[in-house]
Amino acid sequence: IEGAAELTATALLIGFARSIAMILEQGQVLDTVIYYLSMPVEALGGHFGAVAMLVIQSMLNFFIPSGSGQAFVTMPIMVPIADAAGIGRQVAVMAFQMGDGLMNMIVPTNPVLMGILGLAGVPYERWFKFVAPLMLKLLAACAVALLIAVSIGY
């Protein structure tokens, strides 16, 4: 019972995170948010549009920490935008995978991350300070990879 008490804060945070996603879904706000976030991709086109997709997918991971849920919600919108911007569909999927995969290590709405941090006894603030510099480097590397992918017609 004492061990379970340590996870109470984590369980509450997971519940709050899920409630945010539910409110956005049930309130029919999520599609509007995604639509307006995707407008810069179409405006930027090509190379910078692919990087914008990475940024958008990364931001959306806060609200939809589930990879399959995020793909279900965003890809039907992102694929036509990628087509219109002259970005290959593979690049759109690559931006999704990078944004989702990287942000899972840092967003506090990810139940797996919060559960592991709770079990390890590591406060989220401490984890964030530790991993943030690495995340910035990884995001920069992903942006370069996307630029290369667009350049070679991937």
TrEMBL record:
Compartment(s) of residence: Cell membrane
Entry membrane topology: Multi-pass membrane protein
Record-annotated membrane-spanning stretches: 7-24, 44-64, 71-96, 102-122, 134-153
Domain of life: Bacteria
Keywords from the UniProt entry: Cell membrane, Membrane, Transmembrane, Transmembrane helix
Organism from which the protein derives: Pseudidiomarina aestuarii
Protein name: Short-chain fatty acid transporter
Any one of the GO CC terms: plasma membrane
InterPro entries: C4_dicarb_anaerob_car-like, DASS-Related_Transporters
The keyword DNA-binding is assigned to this record: no
